[in-house]
Amino acid sequence: MTHSVVIIGSGFGGIGMAIRLREAGIHDVVILEKAGGLGGTWRDNTYPGAACDVPSHLYSFSFEPKTDWSRRFPPQSEILDYLWHCARKYGALEKVRFGTEVTEARFDEDRAVWKISTTAGELESRVLVSACGQLNRPVWPRIEGRESFTGTSFHSARWDHGADLRGKRIAVIGTGASAIQIVPEIAKEAAELRLFQRSAPYVIDKPDRLYRGWEKAALKNVPGLYGLSRARVYALYEARALGFIKYPKLMSLLENRFRNALKDGVEDPVLREALIPGYPMGCKRILISSDYYPTLARPDVDLITDPIEEITPSGVRTAEREYDVDVIVYATGFQTTEFLSPMKIAGRDGRELNEAWRDGAQAHLGITVSGFPNLFLLYGPYTNLGHNSIIYMLESQFRYVLGCVETLRRHGLGWIDVRPDVQDAFTREMQERLRSTVWQAGCRSWYMDADGKVVNNWPGFTFAYRRATRRPDPRHFRARKAAAG
Question: In sequence order, which residues have a C-beta less than 8 Å from that of residue 45 and are 6 or more positions away?
Fold first, then answer.
């Protein structure tokens, strides 16, 4: 049987896309999920303190408002519960095949179908949607001796909840978004905590708090109040794009929040100096926490800035000394620029996506890739944000993909394929616009590929992206009629 649409992944992208397809009357949809539960990054990242850094009213689907979030910045468990709720309510859960990992997908040009190989068997689909996201494959650092450690070690995205951290000597390697949430939580029960920092992040205060009962009641019962709250938060965060993209000097406003947070949290001038980043604010992801700096100021917490030379059986060794520890937590991020890897994707003429992307990932509007008909990416190249909610971007992409699927059906087409010149023009425009952004201001970040080229981020306002994706332009595509019968 050939399905209408197969979606890879059951995070916000996959579940939201399935819901929108169902609303459009397309019911022959299959979601392939390699894990045993849905949720994507919110299923995988269950470490202590895991939470979103986008306010809860904005980190939810526009078509399914949630008025009873417990706090302003939602914790991981609530986000995952919300996604399960949406999947059940809108019939997406019944479309998911859990424990089914895609290993390969090949496009049959004559039959206009994607032949998909999985760990649970083979299937075919007219349309293939990748909803794998950018934050799903953990990076393990290339440190000599990592396998020799005799204590407990794990990646932050694969948290070992069976590990007893009480009274233990703990090393945390990495100072990214996960680490600043983890460190304040596990420091409460560790005997000693040593944080190994390669480069200091910019951390600003987190204006988080619990929602009061009367606020939840008002958001639920007062017409328009929830929408007004969502619009207000959206506008505040969207304004930050001016600093990231148009006028980097405006980042000084946020830099004042960073300096105040550092001053208030850390009295020791030597420690404070070690926590000042050596690159412009915004070049890497700006992090939010109100307890990170005070935690580092504790006497049982040490910040280590000497480069790690080796992991030993008993701990971590730098050029200065060896630190004996019982537990190592690798908060070292994700492989973000390979997108569909390690799946093997072959399009027209058998060309593999890895070959097409050998000079960097490219996709028109971050969604369609030339030479790979009827393949659509959600949260693909040039669609990540530094200032607002990715859910807004995903909903823009849902509409665009639906427009393409409707075009196939309405005109009896076997496949559509974005023209290479259209894709090239879009990529050139992105790279040209990115040159003047803060992300190219002199640092290495997960926004970049191995060649130092930013390929993840959208260099504009999110409402501009929504306008650009409001409907597919037929002039951008090559098409072939469906075969008779």
Answer: 76, 156, 157, 159, 178
